[in-house]
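Sharing in case it's useful to others searching the archive later.

Someone asked me privately for the predicted structure of Phosphorylated adapter RNA export protein, so I'm posting the question and my answer publicly. Question first, with the sequence:
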Amino acid sequence: MPRMLSELLKEPKIALLHRVVKIVGPKISWQLLRETLRLEKDGGQSVDAAANSRPELLFVLDEGSRDCKLRRRTAGGVFFTLLKEKVSKETYRTIYEVEDRKKKEAKKRARGRHRQRMDKTLAALRFDDLTLAAQSANFGVPSVDEAQTCVTTSADSEVTAMTEDGEVVEYIAGQLRKCSDRNVGGSDMAR
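And my answer, the predicted C-alpha cells:
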C-alpha cells in the first residue's frame, strides 16, 4: 500500500508513507488519499502564507503567462497536511520522528563541515600564531593604543598593490606577525 500511495501522490519518501500506514492504519490512509485527490482535482492547496517565514518562497513564476502565482502544495504535501489535521500531535510526532532525527544529523554534519572549512581557512592565514584571549598580565595581547600604532605604521610603510591571492594572504599574515612580535617584545610565543 505505501508504494501505491507513493505512486499516486508522486511522493519520494516511501519510508515515511510506510510509517503513516503502519501507525495510522490503512483505513485512515485511504480516506486521506481520497481527500487529497479530490483537493488536487479542485485546483490544489496553496502554501500557508502566515506560517512561512520566507516570503520569497510563496510565489512562483508561471512559465506560460509570466505571472506570479501563489505556490501550490504537491500532492504529497497536501496528503501530509491533511494527516497533520487528522491525527493527534503525539501520533504526528511519532510518524515524523525519523525524519526529524535525519534533519538534526544533517544540520550537525553541515555545522561540522563549516567548522572544518573555517579552521582550514584560519590555519592558512596562520592566525594560530596570535593570542586572541587575554592571558595573565595581558601577555601577548596588545592594548588598544599599541594596536592602533601598529596598524597605522604598517599601513603607512608598506602599502603595495598585490594581485595574486597568495601574496595578499602572506602580506596580511606577515603584518600580523610583525605587529604581534613588536607588542610582545620581539619574542616568538607560539612557534
